[in-house]
Amino acid sequence: EAGVVQSPRYKIIEKKQPVAFWCNPISGHNTLYWYLQNLGQGPELLIRYENEEAVDDSQLPKDRFSAERLKGVDSTLKIQPAELGDSAVYLCASSLGGMRSNEQFFGPGTRLTVL
Amino acid sequence: DAKTTQPPSMDCAEGRAANLPCNHSTISGNEYVYWYRQIHSQGPQYIIHGLKNNETNEMASLIITEDRKSSTLILPHATLRDTAVYYCIVRAPDGNKLVFGAGTILRVKS
User: Fold this and answer.
1) Could you count the other beta carbons within 10 Å of the beta carbon of residue B4?
2) Per-residue b/e over B48-72, b at no fewer than 16 CB within 10 Å?
3) Would you place residue A110 in the very low, low, confident or very high pLDDT band (cuts 50, 70, 90)?
4) What pLDDT sits at residue B94?
5) Are the Cβ atoms of A40 and B102 closer than 8 angstroms?
6) What is the pLDDT averaged over residues A36-65?
7) Secondary structure of residue B5 in the 3-state scheme
8) Residue A97 confidence (pLDDT)
9) C-alpha B72: how far from chain center
10) Is some CB atom of chain A closer than 8 A to the CB atom of B1?
11) Are the CB atoms for B107 and B80 separated by under 8 Å?
């Protein structure tokens, strides 16, 4: 069974440029998460989707960050414009959802460097 | 979600048991204890979880004290591939959010 797929694995951009990250969750997983991980820290939740609905986006900086999961399967996280402080690893995870969400499966992440 | 406290780092000799402690003194009665680990350049990986009873799976054992204020993750025979950051998380059964702390860096040495 394929795990959570993310692309690209690495991205280097200049500040003020836009950037997008893509995630394909494990087949059948209704819940999808985007996390941000700064160097030396644990991941922090940005947004959680139940199918195509964003049910928790309280930590998403909405002035520059946006996300979508149009058909309730794969998802895109966008930053526009990127700032130096956005340099981090962006992790996508998925789970079955609801009370069956004992285990979240994480992708390898996208490492973003903003110059 | 209740907070957890873990030592920042630990060393373990290869082949020996690694015992990783976690304090969660404010844990609520319905909150589970979860352990994840993150190997360098990879996403976090689920290890084990428990509520009150001790749990064991193919990866590790979880020992939870009777008052549930602390727990220990045990890797019975640590290998070099177990070198990673280990996160202890408490989470309500209906809560989808994982709140990660800084975790414990475990270094397994030959």
Assistant:
1) 24
2) bbbeeeebeeeebbbbbeeebebbb
3) very high
4) 67
5) yes
6) 94
7) strand
8) 72
9) 7
10) no
11) no
Q: Determine the residue type at A21.
A: F
> For residues A107 and A113, what is the distance between their CA atoms, to the nearest angstrom?
18
Q: Do B96 and A103 touch (CB under 8 A)?
A: no
Tell if the CB–CB gap between A107 and B94 is shorter than 8 Å: no
The tokens describing A68, both together, are: 């979508």
Tokens at A17, concatenated: 């440029």
pLDDT surpasses 70 at B24 = yes
Could you tell me if A13 and A82 are in contact, meaning their C-beta atoms sit under 8 angstroms apart?
A: yes
pLDDT at A19 > cutoff 90:
yes
Computed over every residue of chain A, the mean pLDDT equals: 93
Could you give the dihedral angle defined by the CA atoms of residues B48, B52, B56 and B57, in that order, rounded to the nearest 10 degrees?
A: -40
Which one-letter amino acid corresponds to residue B84? A
Structure tokens at B11: 């060393």
Q: How many CA atoms lie within 13 Å of A28's alpha carbon, on the beta-carbon side?
A: 6
